[in-house]
Design goal:
Elements lengths: L2 E6 L14 E8 L5 E10 L4 E2 L4 E2 L6 H21 L5 H9 L9 H15 L2 H20 L9 H12 L9 E5 L5 E5 L4 E2 L4 H20 L25 H9 L4 H16 L3 H5 L6 E2 L2 E4 L2 E2 L2 E2 L4 E4 L5 H9 L9 H14 L5 E8 L2 E8 L8 H12 L4 H8 L4 H22 L8
Parallel strand pairs: 7-15
Antiparallel strand pairs: 1-2, 2-3, 4-5, 6-7, 6-8, 9-10, 10-13, 11-12, 14-15
Helix pairs in contact: 3-4, 8-10, 8-11, 8-12, 12-14
């Protein structure tokens, strides 16, 4: 009886650390000792992810479902082909099995469609949406700058960045840029001036996503230009915007309409507990015991391994009152509507101090100013909790445990901002000695 088994190609003896070096998967078709042959497949796997016993990829490999499905498909096709041609001399059957159909042209867009199909099974809808938007950008760019996987070199990188910077910024559709005497740029409302394109944060986010795709394509046998591994990615860390303790109190006390009240309560709950809006929406009364909320945080489709416990005591206590107010389930609201209503609620609470932030678009340093409520969104809640906790002297380790932050670098820039203000306060306490004239 015919059978198909899979194994990995052997290593050369001089390869360093072979458990991490990817090698081809081999399919071995056998009828008997004399009648058998091998086919080198298009998949490559590091041995540490391969199960000899089960002849498949281990579950620890991120794309294991996709690869194992491909192996099952290869096995099914070979056995089906043999059943249909078992009367044929084995030499002819072997030639038929090894004869591959005309190879599909491996263009970027063919590969990208397969990439999206794989990610729909592995990632959350927001992540897939980001990669879908990137595909749209690449499609538009291809019309003015023809390219393919093998030609995406540094010239492509430079041209694509230039193209991205020209995309209108959806958050500032009614604004323009005006140049200052010092070379910086002001962002102002109006239509007489330079249009506002997307900023560095978004441009480099697209490039990071593109590098992820190109790495995926290369592993699956597509001919990818190797320069993508050297593309420069700039990651800017902006000073966090957060509410002060007095602003938080004003927001909690202001009287609002029902829609704005719900948005306000989401933000306040986040400020008081440091939890993500997505986890707040998933609150389950079963997870509440002795005024403690213990749950597994979720980001996208990924559940964190470590549980978080929110103690509704002291600073966090008002959050429990919000849950009780809504009978333990705050009404669900869309993210866009939530952020719009948060701004309106903060405006009515008088959180309107003049605020200035800086963003970058290539060589442009752009100054954006306005009342504080314009810069407040649902993301401000966690930042507020971290900032106020640092000001109160809570150890960083406790803050990380409460918010579910696992890496110190995530909280580092909050600490830097707090230390700057603390230094200023301490300097004010030192008597200033004036030199007599």
């Amino acid at each position: 009886m015919a059978s198909v088994k899979f194994y990995l190609r052997r290593y050369r003896s001089d390869i360093y650390n072979p458990q991490n070096v990817e090698v081809s998967v081999i399919a071995k078709f056998t009828v008997d000792r004399r009648n058998r042959f091998e086919i080198t497949l298009d998949e490559k796997i590091a041995p540490r992810y391969w199960s000899r016993k089960d002849q498949c990829v281990r579950g620890t490999y991120r794309g294991h479902l996709e690869v194992n499905e491909y192996l099952s498909e290869v096995k099914f096709k070979l056995l089906s082909l043999y059943r249909e041609n078992r009367e044929m001399p084995f030499a002819e059957f072997k030639a038929l099995a090894l004869k591959r159909p005309e190879e599909e042209k491996k263009t970027l867009f063919v590969a990208y469609d397969k990439f999206l199909d794989a990610y729909r099974n592995e990632k959350d809808s927001k992540t897939v949406s980001k990669y879908t938007t990137l595909l749209i950008r690449l499609s538009h760019f291809e019309k003015v700058y023809p390219y393919d996987l093998a030609t995406m070199d540094f010239n492509f990188y430079d041209a694509f960045k230039k193209f991205l910077y020209r995309i209108p910024n959806p958050f500032y559709a009614r604004c323009i840029l005006t140049r200052n005497y010092d070379g910086s740029w002001d962002l102002l409302e109006g239509d007489q001036g330079e249009p506002v394109g997307i900023f560095d944060d978004m441009v480099y986010s697209y490039l990071i996503q593109l590098k992820t795709f190109l790495g995926w394509a290369e592993k699956r046998g597509y001919q990818v230009h190797q320069s993508y591994k050297l593309w420069q990615i700039i990651r800017r860390v902006h000073p966090p915007i957060s509410l002060t303790s007095s602003e938080l109190e004003r927001l909690e006390c202001v009287t609002l309409s029902k829609a704005l009240e719900i948005a306000r309560d989401y933000l306040v709950f986040e400020c008081r507990t440091g939890q993500r809006i997505s986890d707040i929406k998933r609150f389950d009364l079963k997870d509440l015991h002795d005024d403690k909320w213990t749950f597994t945080p979720r980001k996208g489709n990924r559940l964190n391994a470590k549980q978080i416990t929110v103690h509704f005591k002291g600073y966090c206590a008002p959050a429990l009152d919000i849950l009780h107010k809504y009978n333990w389930k705050i009404p669900i609201i869309s993210e866009q509507k939530l952020n719009d209503n948060i701004k309106r609620a903060c405006k009515e609470a008088g959180i309107d101090s003049e605020t200035v932030v800086y963003r970058y678009a290539g060589e442009k340093r752009i100054k954006i100013s306005g009342p504080k409520y314009e810069f407040i969104s649902s993301h401000v809640g966690r930042k507020t909790m971290i900032t106020l906790a640092l000001q109160a002297g809570m150890p960083v380790e406790y803050i990380m445990a409460l918010t579910g932050i696992t890496e110190y670098k995530t909280i580092k820039h909050y600490k830097a901002k707090f230390e700057d203000s603390a230094i200023e306060q301490e300097l004010e306490k030192i008597p200033m000695m004036r030199k007599a004239l």
